[in-house]
Write a structure and sequence with these properties.
Pfam families: TagF_N (PF09867). This protein is of the alpha+beta class. The chain contains six helices and seven strands, in the order ββααβββαααββα.
């Protein structure tokens, strides 16, 4: 099992301090598939209303979806105002559902760092530097492994998401936003 101190979060998406998409420390194999999924199921949801009012989703992905990955997704945009969510994520040694409560402080820190970047307080290099101080926590989670996809928000219960048909389970996270077509 990899040393947790070596598992640093990376990111993919848009930042107001940058002109277009920015990616750091995430594998291209994940980013390509994640980009397609977000484009199909989340971009239109995160494009409604103000970015500050949009939920910050916390997620855990298991091996049957995109490979083990966990982190946060928040509304963001590039310098020109083109919206696309910012994902901050790390590849945990195990995709155990209990991470949502055991690592709550880590998710809080990812959310705060992502919000600062989204609020134009840092560029891609600044975000990468801040995230280097937030390695995946050395935690012991003995829950069942998650094969699929789980989303939650701060203080809320985790919800299993069907990656192929997520519309119904995503709707409660985005009240008032139009569902998937």
């Amino acid at each position: 099992m990899p040393d947790a101190a070596l598992i640093l979060p990376g990111f993919f998406g848009k930042l107001p301090a940058m002109g277009d998409f920015v990616t750091r420390r995430l594998p291209a194999s994940f980013v390509g598939r994640w980009d397609r999924w977000i484009s199909q199921h989340l971009v239109h949801r995160f494009s409604q209303g103000s970015m500050e009012d949009a939920p910050v989703l916390r997620f855990l992905l298991g091996g049957e979806t995109f490979g083990a990955m966990t982190g946060v997704i928040l509304a963001s945009a590039d310098r020109a105002g083109r919206r696309f969510p910012l994902t901050i994520a790390a590849a945990p040694p195990l995709a155990a559902a209990g991470i949502s409560s055991v690592a709550a402080d880590w998710f809080d820190a990812l959310e705060a760092t992502g919000t600062s970047a989204r609020d134009n307080k840092m560029d891609g290099d600044g975000l990468a530097t801040c995230l280097a101080a937030l390695p995946y926590p050395a935690i012991n989670v003995s829950d069942d492994m998650t094969p699929g996809m789980i989303f939650w928000t701060r203080g809320c219960e985790a919800v299993e998401i069907d990656a192929d048909a997520p519309e119904i389970t995503l709707d409660p996270f985005f009240p008032g936003a139009p569902g998937d077509a």
